[in-house]
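We modelled each protein-ligand pair independently. The example shown here corresponds to the adenosine-5'-diphosphate entry; the chain sequence is given first, followed by the ligand as SMILES.
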Amino acid sequence: MSDYALKVEGLTLDFPRGPRRIVEDLSFTVPEGRTLAIVGSSGSGKTLASLAVMGLLPQGIEVTRGEILLDGVNVLELTDEERRRMRNTRIAMVLQNPMSAFDPIFTIWSHFKETMTSHRDFGSRRAGADRSEMRAQAVASLGRVGFEDPQRILELYPFQMSGGMLQRVMLALALLDSPPLVIADEATTDLDVVSQAHVLRLLKEHCRENRLSLLLITHDLSVAAGLADEMVVMDSGRQTESGTVREIFAHAESDCARRLLAVHRALYSERYVRITANLAGRETPREAVR
Ligand SMILES: Nc1ncnc2c1ncn2[C@@H]1O[C@H](COP(=O)(O)OP(=O)(O)O)[C@@H](O)[C@H]1O
Ligand SMILES: [Mg+2]
C-alpha cells in the first residue's frame, strides 16, 4: 500500500496540433487522509489537470509527459473501461455550477438512483440493494449533508432548489460510497458566503471522519486556508510554488502567490488573515471571524 492517495509527477498537457502548452511539469502528492489545494488564478490549468487525473480530458488535449498514480497504479496506462471503473469506485468529483450538473426533468431521487445503479454496475457494496434500501441510503446521505427533511428533498426537481441546496445534494451524491479520493473543483465558487461556509464545513467533516483524501481546486486562498494542509500554486500552466498552507501564507515567494494573497487581504481584514493563517486546516475561515 502506498501512503498517498494520488501522486502526480511531471504532468504536461498539450494541444498536439496547437501552438500552446497548457500545463507544464506539474507535480504534487495528496497524502492519505489529507487535503492538498491547487490554487491559481482563472485559466492557469487547474481544471484540465484534474480532468487528466479523472481520464476525462476534452478532445484535442493530451497528456504528453508525466505520471498520474492512484493507489500506485498509473492512471494513464488504464484502458477506458478500467478508468470508468476507477471513476465509479475510487474517486468522487464535486464540481462548480450545480445548476448545470443536474438534469432539469428528473427529480433528485432519480439522480440518486442513476448514480447508485452506475456504482453498482462497477461492483460497489450496494450490489443487490433493492429500492427501499437504495431509498434509505439516499435519505441517510442527504441527512449527512444537513437536510432535515430528506424524503421531501428526494421528490424535488433541481429548479425547485437553490444553488446552495443543489451543491449539498451534489456533495451527498459524490460521497455516497465514501470513495477514498475526493476532487472538489471550485465546488463553492458559485455559492453565497453562508452556503459556501456550510458546504466547506460538510466536505471537511466528511473527509476527516472517513479519512478521505481531498484534492481541492480553487482560485480562492481563503478556501485553501480553511481546508487544506498543503498547497500548490499554479500560474499560466506552471507550478510556481508548493508548501504547507502556513508556509505560503507566511512567506509567499512567487508573484502569483503574492497576488492571490493580496486579493485575499483586500477582501478580508488583517485580523482575519492572521486567523486563517493560524487556523489553516482546522476551521472554515469565514466562521473563524464570527
Ligand atoms: N476544452 C478546452 N479546449 C481548449 N482549451 C481549453 C479547454 N478548456 C480549457 N482550455 C484552456 O486551457 C487553459 C487552462 O484552463 P483551465 O484548466 O480550465 O483553467 P483553470 O481551471 O485554472 O481556470 C486556459 O487557457 C483555457 O482557456
Ligand atoms: Mg477551473
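Residues 85 and 122 are 6 Å apart (CA to CA).
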